[in-house]
Inverse folding.
């Protein structure tokens, strides 16, 4: 089985169904196992890649939410400053 990326814990890196499939393939005769292993390894790589992409997207969304909070705070502060200046001038 290919090694998971370093930032992913091996025990939690694959769905249960894929682990079950790997176990079933390991019980097959060698000629069938050799035919199926490359396909399963591509599925595993694809699963890890999707997990990395999903993690990146989740982190980006969290950062975007934080940035939006800072922007809203800044907007409210700017509005308060504007209103205070209008009162002083008007």
């Amino acid at each position: 089985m290919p090694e998971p990326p370093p930032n992913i814990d091996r025990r939690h890196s694959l769905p249960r169904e894929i682990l079950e499939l790997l176990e079933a393939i390991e019980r097959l005769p060698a000629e069938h196992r050799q035919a199926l292993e490359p396909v399963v390894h591509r599925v595993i790589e694809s699963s890890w890649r999707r997990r990395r992409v999903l993690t990146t997207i989740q982190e980006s969304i969290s950062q975007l939410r934080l940035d939006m909070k800072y922007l809203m705070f800044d907007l409210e502060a700017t509005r308060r400053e504007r209103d205070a200046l209008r009162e002083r001038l008007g």
Notes: The mean pLDDT is 88. Residues 30-89 form the longest helix (60 residues). The two ends are 74 Å apart (CA to CA).
